[in-house]
Amino acid sequence: MENKQKQSEENSEKSQENDDELDITSENFNPLKALYSDQMKLPVKNVRRLDNLAVFLSRLKNAENKIDSELTQQPTTSKKAAPKTETEQDEKYHVTQAGRKFLKEQAPIHRGKKSKFTRDLFSKMENSKGPLALLQKFVSNNRKVKVYVRKEHGIRGYIIGQLAFFDKHYNLALIDCTETWKRRKYKFSDSNISFPNPPQDCTKFLASMGIEVPQITVKSLNRKYVECTRKLNQMMIRGEDVVLISEFIEDQKVR
């Protein structure tokens, strides 16, 4: 009986020593024995196992910026993906009112009510910016403008009138216009064109059709050039012929 008690006491002492050597928090902790022992108990459940010491040191440096749950998280070895929730499926698919299911790329586009055609000249004029905004001020204030137009090799003349409409290509519509241009006198012209029939006056023929030809006043400037002036109720100027647009002040001298 005494031998059995001694053996049991010795076994209990050995188990206590083993427990102390395998306990991380004790002073008698034996790391070599802990590596080869099957009775080693870790203080944290489901701890992630590392392959070598270098991985442990790298994770130890980053442990300050990570949460404990991330450090103890076990890697998933199964190839099966986690089941998607209903919210993820709703985000992936588009379900119509009739119950049909489409992908987001295949879903019909809802355009709403068909709006009227609003791309007109008036809205473009009101929303114009830059130099075109200055033309809009001339239109809204009923100011007259002076438009210089070009010919093939220079300036042909200028037109003074009230600006009514314009667009982004500088096509202009004027009312109450006065056109002034300069030309050479016929005696000093270089053209030697001979017409088989002399020119005829078509004013009566045009008047019978309801077309009034504006009268042109001719003023001699020098020995070679004359200045022609005519008045028109309306005029359309193409943007490719426009050289300069400026505000016309009646007090200034027209050159």
Short précis:
By secondary structure, the protein is an alpha+beta fold. Helices cover 27% and strands 25% of the residues.
Notes on the structure:
It is built from eight helices and eight strands, in the order αααααββααβββαβββ. It has helices at about 1-20, 30-35, 55-60, 70, 85-90, 120-125, 130-140, 205-210, and strands spanning about 95, 100-105, 145-150, 155-165, 170-185, 215-220, 225-235, 240-245. The protein starts with a helix and ends in an 8-residue tail after the last strand. The model has no long low-confidence stretch (mean pLDDT about 75). The strands form two sheets. Strands 6-7-5-4-3-8 form a six-stranded antiparallel beta sheet. It has a two-stranded antiparallel ribbon with strand order 1-2. The protein is an alpha+beta fold and about 260 residues long.
Keywords:
255 residues; alpha+beta; two-stranded antiparallel sheet; 8 helices; 8 strands; rod-shaped
**Unreliable residue runs:** none
Q: For the residues shown, what is the average pLDDT?
A: 77
Could you say which structural class the secondary elements and strand pairing correspond to? alpha+beta
Largest sheet: 6 strands, antiparallel
Strand content: 25-35%
Tell me the layout of helices and strands.
Blueprint: H1 2-22, H2 31-36, H3 53-61, H4 68-71, H5 86-92, E1 93-95, E2 101-103, H6 121-126, H7 131-140, E3 144-151, E4 154-166, E5 172-184, H8 203-208, E6 216-220, E7 225-237, E8 242-247
Antiparallel strand pairs: 1-2, 3-4, 3-8, 4-5, 5-7, 6-7
